[in-house]
């Protein structure tokens, strides 16, 4: 399925049973809630998906299951986060076999590669697949920045098409637009900068709190796209305390707790992660409960999408 690299793409959480196996039943509940809200793609195996704790067979199961659930409604994208180039090549081959529509790709894991090594890693893996690729640029969490000069080199490959922009520098959206125009699609990867990024020209939003609040997230995107900025800002202001749960070391636990509150997830995480407890849990629950209490009335988003 072709990817246009725009709109809201949830970085979905991986659902686990109390026995620490994949909870595909609750996973399907959440995916269907995302589809009902009108998201534009599904991203698997990212940070929120607890990718580092998943086995290769589990990743493949998630891709195959999601492809079956979405049934061609939206693209299914799998994150590639590997320690070796050969591992990345095998992962993209698996993704193709399992029916993925595209790839999100991080720089090499664990080893802090140089610019030259990072470019070589991305290009070698990209040459081994025809799937379209979005580079995940998150130097804050992963210590390697993909600079504009590096993108100039990477864009010589046709299937490198987009960036998940997570540098936390809002002006980077303008720098990318000034340098590359529409050659490099931009999806904001930071929930608390998403609307600002969209207004400045980003094409989409790889979202986190969408996992618990899909309709509100899609509403913000569709309203700003339609030029109804004040309405988008009003929802965004309500959403911000919840969105801040995403820029936190416990983002997985935070968002899973929010999913429980909205009825489309469980709190189960995979060790070494543990569910929130004590004062930390109390504070997060207060934020979620306040958000639910003041949840805004949304406009007819389907009408906007069909306009």
TrEMBL record:
PANTHER family named in the record: DIHYDRODIPICOLINATE SYNTHASE
Gene3D superfamilies: Aldolase class I
Residues that bind pyruvate: 206
UniProt xrefs under InterPro entries: Aldolase_TIM, DapA-like
GO molecular function: 4-hydroxy-tetrahydrodipicolinate synthase activity
Species per Swiss-Prot/TrEMBL record: Aquimarina spongiae
Family classification: Belongs to the DapA family.
Residue positions of the active site: 136, 164
Annotated signal sequence range: none
Pfam families linked: DHDPS
Protein keywords: Lyase
CDD domains xref list: DHDPS-like
The protein's name in its UniProt record: 4-hydroxy-tetrahydrodipicolinate synthase
